[in-house]
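Below is how a single chain appears once it has passed through the pipeline. First comes the sequence as given, then the structure the pipeline wrote out for it. We keep one example in the README because the format questions we get most often are answered faster by looking than by reading.
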Amino acid sequence: MLTHAAEDYLKSIYKLQEKVGKVSTGILAEYLNVKPASVTGMIKKLKTMQLVRHERYQGVTLTDAGKAIALEIIRHHRLLELYLFKVLGVPWDGVHDEAEKLEHVISEDVEARMDEFLGYPTADPHGAPIPDKNGVVTKTPSVPMTDLRSGQSCVVAEVSDTDSALLRHLGSFNLYPGTAFQVIEVAPFEGPFTIDIAGQQVVIGREVAKHVFVENVEE
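Resulting structure:
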């Protein structure tokens, strides 16, 4: 049986692999906030269990078995986030940490019951896709908010979920998944974005905008 730490490694490798392909031990250590030596030790264990592929200086990737476990943990996590948010009323900036604790321990029966109760949802409160029971992920095409130009309109598709302060900040502007807005102005020299949300103009700094992804972009 896998430890919770091993499951966290598989989940993290999956997320990083989606962005960069083969994952270096240095990137993984930084992402998990652990020492490189700890990563090396865990990778050896996971390779022995045939859950990852790893060649020295070539990075790490998941095997099919490792990917299946990672997607199952991600499914647990995102269903839990949505259940905590919709049913228990936990604020969207607090569900991530709670789901991190619970994702390893819920049974498949509880997972199935949550899925049915929530109406077989496809996205968590932050817009991230929920893998279905077969491990299939359907991701909405989106672009970073930082790609937008003045005059363009769009809808928020997804926001990064790991920084609770960032989520509270976005929530103060009602920048939730599904929120439509128009870009009024993009300040030069990597400056902030002035946007219009339902008639209210707000200013979003570029560092914040990097964590917001949008869809349905129109001129």
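Residues 24 and 56 are 10 Å apart (CA to CA).

See the next section for the split statistics.
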